[in-house]
Amino acid sequence: GTVEAAAPSAAAEASTDAADGDVAGTGEELFEEGMKQNAMERDAADADQDGKLDLAEFMVMVRERDEADHTDEELAARFKALDGDGSGQIDMPEFLHWSLREALQRSTERVCDLFKKWDEDNSGKIDKREFRRAVKALGFPYISDKEVDTVFDSLDEDKSGSLEYKELNAVLRKGAGSEAVQANLKRG
Fold first, then answer.
1. Higher model confidence: residue 187 or residue 152?
2. How far apart are the first and last CA of the chain?
3. Across the chain, what does the average pLDDT equal?
4. How far is residue 97's CA from residue 84's CA, in Å, rounded to a whole number?
5. Which of 173, 141, 140, 137 is CA-nearest to residue 155?
6. Residue 21: left if φ>0, alpha if ψ -120 to 50, beta else—which one?
7. Each residue of 119-176: pLDDT tens digit?
8. Residue 129, class by beta-carbon neighbours within 10 Å (0-12 exposed, 13-18 middle, 19+ buried)?
9. Adjacent-strand bridge partners of 162
10. Which residues contact 39 (CB under 8 A, 6 or more apart)?
């Protein structure tokens, strides 16, 4: 009956996830804990409390969290990579985008598991409201809707106004093998 019918679909779902490259991260943290930790470290490093990290603040944050010693040049290069708009400051959307990927790298969770948690109405898509709620619950309660929406729009590659699972997985996995992301996934 119904039991046999359910099993193949679960197996098919698992193989689809594997085909999409959706594997758990390399770390032992829960995604949510990683995000909250990132948010706390960002807040602690934001010495002037302007909601942005300049290079000096960024260097302090990385040096406090990473076990390895980094040269100023290495940190400046990482800073430049995160500073998407080249403003000389990592703003909240830039930090959030990085944090989502970075926490996923350390996490034991897969994108599909996060997706299911964030997709409150089980529509198979995440809308802006659901994404805002997820982000605020992940340790960013003070982030503005406009800042969250900037990140949402950058993740929404087909500009449909909602995030499908494949879209979220592809974007969050982009650059996952890059040395900047791989460097020191263990917290100091």
1. 152
2. 53
3. 82
4. 10
5. 173
6. left
7. 999 999 999 999 999 999 999 998 999 999 999 999 998 999 999 988 888 878 775 4
8. exposed
9. 127
10. 99, 138, 139, 140
